[in-house]
User: What shape does this take?
Amino acid sequence: MIRLRWWTTAVVCLAAFPGVSWAQPDRDVLYQTSTLGALMIGIYDGPVTFGQLRQHGDFGLGTFNGLNGEMIALDGKFYQITADGIAHEVKDSTCTPFAAVTFFDRDHTAPIEGERSFTQLTEHLGGLLPTENVFYAIRIDGTFSYVKTRSVPKQERPYPKLVDVIANQPTFEWRDVKGTLVGFRCPDYVRGVNVAGYHFHFIDDARTKGGHVLECRLRGGTVTTDLTRELLLALPESEDFDRAALENDDEQATHHPE
Amino acid sequence: MIRLRWWTTAVVCLAAFPGVSWAQPDRDVLYQTSTLGALMIGIYDGPVTFGQLRQHGDFGLGTFNGLNGEMIALDGKFYQITADGIAHEVKDSTCTPFAAVTFFDRDHTAPIEGERSFTQLTEHLGGLLPTENVFYAIRIDGTFSYVKTRSVPKQERPYPKLVDVIANQPTFEWRDVKGTLVGFRCPDYVRGVNVAGYHFHFIDDARTKGGHVLECRLRGGTVTTDLTRELLLALPESEDFDRAALENDDEQATHHPE
Assistant: This one.
């Protein structure tokens, strides 16, 4: 019997696969399943599970099959904000028709002082971010004197358009609540693919409630940003998606409700 | 000394890196550096080398720093069509400001019979491709009774817009030439990012001449397609790119000259 020293075999083992990537999954990629345009016109079911999605990130936004609530991913945990505004942890077997995630690695942190509305907050962020032409994952941990969110109720086929769903969306208001805004800023040129500009979901510190942010007043907190230059757009293997009459409709993209 | 059987070590070696990807580079991804919008407004220099680009594909389109000609990648070889219409092999150290490549793996092949103009050819392709909502790499090998291409001459800073460069573009006409159309069809919703619809470059069988296709008459040939559902948009690490005043200008996207 030939006896090889263990490290010899290890070296051979490593060298024998020249095409193999030894890198960890690339963390600095914004991964997205499906497109905003598809969601807008009612493509509410997709084949991607949260078990698959979490391979691509620990931070992000999205929704669930049947448009069953708002998704928020934070610190590696995935939450479903159902139509009552309540947060539930998501099972790996649950599926999503639209979601965007990344591994959140801090590039910059800055305190935010003084009370700011949602508009004032995004204007402030605009001054912090170095270029308009790339993607940012953004988390804002703080104390909010006011937060208004919405969620969306599960839909039944035939699915209405998203704009019609949110015409009757349940909204929630909280005062003096600690929590986190989780979101992205995407460049204008990807409208139709994702939300151009800022898009935030909220979850409270206790991870019990939240939703898609409609308005807020941040009393003070910390903003942390993760700049990424890579977008991996993964289109679902789905007859619904393939048959969808997608359009790069400026109206829909500019007045995005998701 | 502890003696381990070689296969024990190999198993340990394989099992010890749970985060390691054993997959080959994902071949079914359309990889793109920079955006069409950036190229349109004169971002003609980028940091990506062809040595890097070929890690992401063996088939595709693009241009060169300084807008120095049309790029065509076919069967793993990268060619530069200079402003005289002549094809040159590209060095790995050369850089590109805009390119899109994939590993071409045949999904479908079909003969194309009967003479067809470029418009008739793309209409014919439209009937072959199963959905408008995904990406296709397309190669058409055949005999052309006529091909008209253009290339672009190297530019000097300050760079003019692409639309102004091609107002004076050199064009080339060939008759009774065998060669290959290399291109992509991208869905409408990515306009601003890449060319919405069809975009082809041509190279002759001898790999001596070609360019960006303006018109052709295909006498007969074969179309081979590679459907992909993933787009990896990689934005360049470049001050030029970061400072660019990018807009999702429908006019520019619809009347794309690249």
Q: What stands out?
A: Chain B touches chain A through 51 residues (CB under 8 Å). Residues 188 and 196 of chain B are 5 Å apart (CA to CA). The helical segments of chain B are 6-15, 36-40, 50-53, 118-128, 162-165, 239-243, 250-254. DSSP finds seven helices and 14 strands in chain B.
